[in-house]
Specification:
Layout: E1 4-7, E2 10-12, E3 15-17, E4 22-23, E5 27-28, E6 33-35, E7 38-41, E8 45-48, H1 57-65, E9 75-77, H2 83-86, H3 89-95, E10 100-103, H4 105-115, E11 123-125, E12 131-133, E13 138-143, E14 153-157, E15 162-166, H5 186-201, H6 205-215, E16 222-225, H7 235-246, E17 251-258, H8 264-278, E18 282-287, H9 293-301, E19 303-309, E20 312-313, E21 316-317, H10 319-330, E22 337-344, H11 352-358, E23 364-365, E24 370-373, H12 378-397
Parallel strand pairs: 8-9, 9-10, 10-11, 15-16, 17-18, 17-19, 19-22, 22-23, 22-24
Antiparallel strand pairs: 1-2, 2-7, 3-6, 4-5, 7-8, 12-13, 13-14, 14-15, 20-21
The chain binds flavin mononucleotide (FMN) and fe (ii) ion (2 copies).
One fe (ii) ion (FE2) is lined by residues 80, 82, 148, 167.
């Protein structure tokens, strides 16, 4: 993308990544992601973020060069050390020889460990409320540890009231020529925001709440995160979304996550979905074998009810469903009701492995567990009807 002045003397110099299949080696990103970076030209020149993944170095340096020669950079502000934003730091170290890397105390250790950068005169360590004066513009730093790495901070430009928020308020999705919230199809980006939140930031809801409290004191005209859209029209919107997601606020809907080998469990999944929908419940049906867990985690994050359907497999839970439940546990999803159903051949009880996984999360179980042998019988359908009735009650109670 050619550089673009997003605000007077502040330029977008980031890149789109449409070739990485799995962000952080786990999370499927078929619609890409952007690594945003911003160049501020004042008496001093500051680059916000250490850049991009190393694979995009050429485009990134071309973007910088269209505004100024990289050797003119005085400050490289590292909001967070993850290599999706710092892969290009070793190149900046070389091609911006006067630049000082601005980071937190722990970030300084990471600079040494990740990239062998240790010279004291190339590093500025900042703490809460420290400021760097660029001439007319002023950058102030606020620590938001744990969102989502321990050394994370944000950078606030005081004269134009722009928050460079790093991963906070970020989203998946390449920008594809877009930059601003008012230019975008928000339905797509907000779905990608929820998925990004659940995958990347979700475990750190308390740090997010702490950050929101701290940043709530700032007057913010624009939020410029390091992934996804820049919020100039309605920055409140992305703050509200992060607030809601980090408070585990649910929508009145059910996620029906199932897996099947030969279709018996799937038949009951279809039956339950239809019954729920005919009772006015919004349902998302996901086959765990086919839908990447990054999406399921996003769907589950704000669903009030999660229903697991799975056959017993080798004395345990069917692995694709188990893996998703494992991620729910790993990411500490809270504030859920759950139900269970599924087919088995002889021993049954594979679902116990799911119960063990989610027990520490304190979810409320919805009775009955509908386990059946082989195909569904009429008696099984009666049990399934009771499960549906109980789900409907829970969803309707809160609407
Ligand atoms: C590889 C494999 C392992 C299985 N392991 C068990 C098991 O340990 N205990 C059990 O009761 N049934 C087991 N079953 C039987 C299935 O749970 C049973 O066929 C069930 O009806 C499959 O449901 P589905 O049609 O939804 O895949 C196994 C089936 C397969 C193919
Ligand atoms: Fe990150
Ligand atoms: Fe990031």
């Amino acid at each position: 993308m050619p550089t673009y002045e997003i605000s007077p003397n502040i330029f977008y110099v980031g890149v789109d990544d449409r070739k990485t299949q799995f962000f952080e080696g786990i999370w499927y990103i078929p619609d890409g992601i952007s690594y945003n970076a911003y160049l501020i030209k004042d008496q001093k020149t500051a680059l916000i973020e250490g850049g991009t993944r190393i694979d995009f170095a050429r485009s990134f340096f071309n973007n910088i060069s269209s505004v100024t020669d990289p050797s003119n950079i005085d400050y490289v502000i590292i909001n967070h050390m993850e290599p999706d934003h710092t892969g290009t730091v070793p190149l900046l170290y070389k091609f911006a020889p006067d630049a000082k890397f601005v980071t937190t105390n722990l970030g300084k250790t990471m600079l040494a460990n990740f990239y062998g950068i240790t010279e004291a005169d190339r590093i500025i360590v900042v703490k809460e409320n420290d400021e760097i004066n660029l001439g007319k513009m002023k950058l102030r730093f606020h620590m938001i540890p744990g969102v989502h790495w321990p050394e994370t901070m944000v950078t606030y430009e005081e004269t134009q009231k722009i928050l460079f928020s790093g991963d906070a308020f970020g989203s998946y999705g390449a920008l594809n020529g877009l930059l601003f919230d008012d230019e975008a199809n928000l339905d797509f980006y907000l779905a990608e925001t929820r998925r990004y939140f659940a995958n990347i930031v979700g475990l750190f809801t308390r740090p997010v709440q702490n950050a929101l409290k701290k940043l709530g004191n700032l007057e913010i005209k624009m939020i410029a995160p390091s992934h996804g859209l820049i919020w100039r029209n309605n920055p409140r919107k992305i703050i509200e979304i992060y607030d809601k997601l980090s408070r585990y606020e649910n929508e009145n809907k059910a996620l029906l996550l199932y897996g099947t080998m030969y279709g018996f469990t799937e038949e009951l999944a279809n039956y339950i979905a239809r019954k729920l929908i005919s009772n006015g419940v919004k349902v998302i049906v996901r086959n765990a074998t086919f839908v990447h867990p990054s999406y399921v985690l996003g769907d589950g994050w704000d669903s009030k009810v999660i229903v697991f359907g799975l056959p017993t497999y080798d004395g345990g839970a069917f692995p694709p469903v188990y893996y998703n439940a494992y991620l729910f546990a790993k990411k500490q999803l809270k504030n859920k009701y759950f139900g269970i159903f599924g087919s088995s051949g002889w021993s049954g009880k594979g679902y116990l492995k799911i119960l063990n996984l989610i027990k520490p999360l304190g979810w409320n179980q919805i009775d009955p567990i509908v386990e059946f042998r082989g195909q569904i019988t009429k008696e099984d359908l009666v049990k399934a009807d009771t499960l549906v009735e109980n789900i409907v009650k829970i969803i309707k109670e809160s609407s």
